[in-house]
Write the structure tokens for this entry.
Amino acid sequence: MFPVDVSLARRLVDSQFPQWRDLPLRRLEPAGSDHVIYRLGPGLSARFPRHPGPIGQASKDLAWLPFLAPHLPLAVPTPVAVGRPDLGYPWPWGVSRWLPGSSAAGLGASVGTARTLAEFLSTLQRLPVPSAAAALSGRPLAARDEVTRSAIADLAGVFDAAALTRVWQAALDAPAWNRPPVWFHGDFHTGNLLAADGRLSAVIDFGGLGAGDPATDLQIAYTLLEPAPRAAFRAALDLDEATWARGRGWTLTGGLPAHRAYAAGDARIAEQTTRQITAALADAAPAPGPATGRPAGRL
């Protein structure tokens, strides 16, 4: 992780954007896993990648968010500048308009929240995908096979490894997305939602933005929503069971490695990842058969 202390952030802002030299700079905590974020005056935020993974996000945000934002039912970041590597800092970094709001973690029991999330994704998926977005297809789920199976094995004493393996294999075996590519957020989980006045207000952190299979965005059904809102969310989306199977796979491949890496030292991450893993398992479990003593579906 590259350290970006306030002194370095201040020098980068002042040297590259002198118009903001007099704005106060304050680091936001807790720090994200991908970026160090500073509040820059009352209306801006500066985001500095902490490792090579997200180094293209600032440029991608500037290229695509202004194209998408006017059509979406929730606010999204407004990028205003991309900084360059300098002063020993090795990567591009970004400045965006500040979006007010607080955590949306308390909204998971709301059917209204589920419907708003579904409306956001449905709208995003209907927007045209220019040919220039073809490079944003992202990695396939199968590329996560090794790390996911490794996490399943390492967490066998915490979760049901056999059940996890079944759900993961079902995700890999599910038919691929066979419709034209659609936009997806790519990291659509609770931590990337903001709320204001008890309602969803914004979606942030589009580092995973891409075009192709929308299954990755179904993680929100398991990271935030409780069973009844999850059912409403599913009913509002025009997606087949194969897409949902792949969505459960994305949920596991996001939650299991994070649980393995952080749960022992961070109770908040432990709770969040346990929620999404167990919810995905429960959603994939077969419905109980009728109480007749006969197997379900048999006469």
